[in-house]
Design brief:
This protein is of the alpha/beta class and about 240 residues long. The chain has one domain: P-loop containing nucleotide triphosphate hydrolases (Rossmann fold, 3-Layer(aba) Sandwich). Helix content is about 35%, strand content about 25%. The protein is built from seven helices and ten strands. Strands 6-7-8-3-9-10 form a six-stranded mixed β-sheet, sandwiched between helices. The longest helix has 18 residues, at about 190-205. The chain is globular and about 50 Å long. The protein starts with 15 loop residues before the first strand and ends in a 7-residue tail after the last strand. It binds adenosine-5'-triphosphate and magnesium ion.
């Protein structure tokens, strides 16, 4: 689990704590404000949905919370690490240690097999051990129901199978948090349901915090917490469900 120093007054207890986050993009003629003074606290093990209209800034926010991008101003702590104070290299180290990311478009490497794609994050870690990594990757592929497809490249896998490989890849470094940006946006209803169930099962089995962006109100309602991003502000829906 995450080691946090609760004696320090500046260390937040939330697994994700964002304070006064502002993000804007410099266009040719003007500055486009995406959100400003945004606050958010997420606690370990929670399932959190973020919804909002297309263009409202959901992917931008998720990318910042996942340390892939940086906010213009504000403070962000992820697993106790002060992300706003880190350089790119340090942020990459935080990502490797704590974070798994599932993209809408899967983003698997086409020339690698399913097994190699899943093993990839471990290759970047110090002390990489091939046989051990392979064993872990095979176990995860089995967990997502793809034991027999491990030697296939993404080209011959269905959309749902590719997304399951992507989930296995996000899990291999045993992250504290999984971020998923419309993980079922490109899948048919039945396959989407399977992938959603898988994410919720992993959240329950491993206590992995799940933060997902979705356009699907039913999926959002299945999460314990539901935030809506609108006009650059986050509003939490009062009703909570949980699976
Ligand atoms: N690199 C960029 N350059 C210019 N504008 C950008 C850039 N990235 C994002 N934007 C703009 O920022 C706004 C928020 O984009 P974002 O992708 O976060 O929206 P979203 O809520 O994820 O939308 P969708 O539901 O369609 O995925 C949009 O108006 C988008 O055009
Ligand atoms: Mg988006």
């Amino acid at each position: 689990m995450v080691q946090q120093d609760f004696t320090s007054p500046i260390m937040p207890q939330a697994i994700i704590s964002a304070q006064q986050l502002t993000q804007s993009i410099q266009l040719q003629q003007q500055t486009l404000s995406i959100f400003s003074a945004l606050n958010l606290e997420i606690f370990a093990g929670e399932q959190v949905a973020i919804t909002g209209r297309s263009g409202s800034g959901k992917s931008t926010l998720l990318g910042i919370l996942a340390t892939l991008d940086q906010a213009v101003t504000g403070q962000l702590y992820v697993c106790g690490e002060p992300i706003h104070a880190l350089n790119e290299e340090q942020r990459a180290a935080v990502r490797l240690k704590y974070i798994g990311f599932v993209f809408q478009s899967f983003q698997l490497l086409p020339h690698l097999t399913a097994l190699e794609n899943v093993m990839l994050p471990l290759r970047l870690q110090p002390g990489f051990h091939y046989a051990k990594a392979e064993q872990q990757a095979r176990a995860l592929l089995a967990r997502v129901g793809l034991e027999r497809q491990s030697a296939q490249t993404p080209r011959v896998l269905s959309g749902g199978e590719q997304q399951r490989v992507a989930i296995a890849r996000a899990l291999i470094s045993e992250p504290e948090i999984i971020f998923a940006d419309e993980p079922t946006g490109n899948l048919d209803g039945h396959t989407a349901e399977e992938i959603e169930q898988l994410l919720f099962d992993l959240n329950r089995e491993r206590g992995t915090t799940l933060v997902l962006v979705t356009h699907d109100p039913q999926l959002a309602a299945r999460c314990q917490r539901h935030f809506e991003l609108r006009d650059g502000q986050l509003t939490e829906h009062a009703e909570t469900a949980g699976v």
